[in-house]
Design brief:
With 299 residues, the protein is of the alpha+beta class. It is built from seven helices and six strands, in the order H-E-E-E-H-H-H-E-E-E-H-H-H.
């Protein structure tokens, strides 16, 4: 009897403990495993997670709006391999500058050192890019009200555009296709035109495999720039009865190429003109052919 009482008491005690353990409902029965339920997505599969190895492989791209004061329109290209950011490129284009900002800075034309800075813009941009590759997270940066940071030694420029665009690029996911190699490509005519005195020039900027900027211009034997001469009113198309100046019509053709991406897809008449671009009455065929040659370098 004594042995039976002990067994009965033990059974009652176990039942009481089980009842207490279940009094808090389902929260206490949550599995210790991190395995997600069938309708959940693991956090590590998110394309914008900063966890090492979590990004989807590919090329990412984001472009901001042109700055109203400076005219620079920033863009960021990221390469992800093995789930990690392995390459970051911060750059910009400008309607009044024929090449990209990095090239412009490397040519000494941006002039930060001349203005008293310790280093040029492209050198500081490289440090910001390296910081992102090290941290793997564009949100892992402290910025002040001016968009600057003390977290990156030797960087005094505004870096908010870079980290904001990097975050946007990662959130958007990889680009669909990459047609050309990134870079800025230059091509020009073989000789000066005997009648006009101009030799045609083109510059093409490629980012994330696509054309993001085209610049049509020309140079004469004096070294003068055709587009700038038009902007300054020295080319004189309106004075000759045209509806717009040369640089304005050239801008329409440049925008057409950025939108359509293919310089070979336009038909021209015997005068080298086309009806495909509204408002463009100037001869454009030779410019489109030069763009095609420039892009041969990007394949």
């Amino acid at each position: 009897m004594k042995k039976a009482s002990i067994i009965l008491s033990s059974a009652l005690l176990l039942g009481l403990l089980a009842g207490c353990g279940s009094s808090n409902g389902a929260d206490t029965t949550e599995p210790a495993s991190n395995t997600p339920a069938a309708n959940e997505t693991p956090a590590s599969n998110s394309t914008n997670s900063a966890e090492a190895g979590s990004y989807q492989d590919g090329v990412y791209y984001a472009q901001g709006e042109a700055d109203a004061k400076t005219g620079w329109q920033y863009y960021v290209t990221l390469t992800v391999s093995g789930g990690k950011i392995t390459e970051a490129n911060w750059n910009a284009i400008n309607a009044t500058v024929p090449v990209d900002k990095v090239t412009y800075s490397k040519e000494g034309k941006y002039g930060m050192k001349a203005g008293g800075a310790a280093s040029e813009w492209h050198e500081q941009a490289e440090k910001a890019e390296q910081y992102l590759i090290e941290k793997q997270d564009p949100k892992d940066i402290t910025l002040n009200e001016e968009g600057k940071t003390d977290a990156i030694a030797g960087v005094s420029v505004h870096v908010n555009e870079f980290f904001t665009l990097a975050d946007q690029a990662l959130a958007a996911g990889p680009v669909d296709s990459v047609k050309y190699k990134d870079g800025t490509y230059h091509e020009e005519g073989a000789e000066f035109d005997p009648q006009s005195g101009w030799k045609e020039t083109v510059d093409v900027v490629v980012a994330a495999g696509k054309i993001v900027k085209v610049n049509f211009s020309g140079v004469n034997e004096k070294g003068e720039d055709k587009k700038q001469a038009s902007i300054d009113g020295n080319y004189g198309m309106k004075a000759g009865g045209a509806a717009s100046e040369w640089h304005e019509e050239a801008a329409l053709a440049e925008a057409y190429l950025v939108e359509n991406q293919d310089p070979a897809a336009v038909a021209f008449n015997e005068e080298g003109k086309t009806d495909a671009i509204a408002g463009a009455t100037i001869s454009l065929q030779s410019y489109f052919e030069l763009v095609g040659k420039a892009l041969e370098q990007a394949k």
